[in-house]
Amino acid sequence: MPTEEREGGVNLTVHGKTDAGLVRKGNEDAFVVTDLSSGSAIDGPLARVAVGPKGVLLAVSDGMGGRQAGEVASALVLETLVRSMANDATGELASAPHVVMEAAVSDANREVWKAAKEPGQERMGATLTAVLVEGTSVHIAEVGDSRAYLLRGGTLVQLTSDQSYVQALVDAGVMTPEEAKHAPMKNIILQAMGQKTGVSVALSKLSLRQRDCILLCSDGLTNKVSPNEMTQILLSSPTMAVACDRLVDLANAKGGEDNITVVMGGVSGGDLLPLVPGEDPATTVEILKSFSAPVVH
What we know:
The protein is an alpha+beta fold. It has helices spanning 69-87, 97-115, 165-171, 177-181, 219-222, 227-236, 240-253; strands at residues 11-19, 29-35, 40-41, 47-50, 56-64, 125-126, 128-134, 137-143, 147-152, 155-158, 202-207, 213-217, 260-268, 285-289. A hairpin with a 4-residue loop joins β2 and β3 (40-41). The protein starts with 10 loop residues before the first strand and ends in an 8-residue tail after the last strand.
């Protein structure tokens, strides 16, 4: 079982929900929350856990491939990621968490690449956004366009950058962010787990503050619910469970054409620094490795 919550240190309250949506018959999304110190999965309607020496892993994967292959890919990504990080054969999880995360993501990519050679699973793949809550820091790894957000002091900040065709156009100054919202090719991603033998993992690190909340989600949410709407729901909901329900319900109310997954993790504890009024959250984020998009025109 996960370790019990304590007053000191860092404590994490987590809740997750995944939904098939209103159009698709199956759900190719998946998520996982695991206490790496105990090796136990954290589930149930709402869980509270003391963050141990190996940290707590939260991850979302959005599968693709059809004929249930996407469901296989997302499950395999998360299963391999957790196993690789829990084993930590190098012993670097405490000293270099981002190194362990990158290696674990690479392991997961290779497993999906190999499994995609099986009949009925050709070309299957998945996105991955993973967060390791370790001490007073969060380490983030991303492949694809599932997102991580930070809610701090009433403001929602996107921590990841979509590895997508339209985001590359925005970064190149060819398209505005507003145009990108309605671009017909907005669902084209530039890389995914299992599509090649290697993968470029975007890595970053966040210094936590008291009452920070991390939100992970698949594009079934972000394609339907705006950041302002997310913020309003997060701030007005009495619990994480209610917030997750409301976010999924709104995405479905706006069409629900895709699977929708939401995972939330809120931190507390005596080891965390208090929120500094007026502090720019961007100053507490360190980019360790960026995804280099191909040149687009």
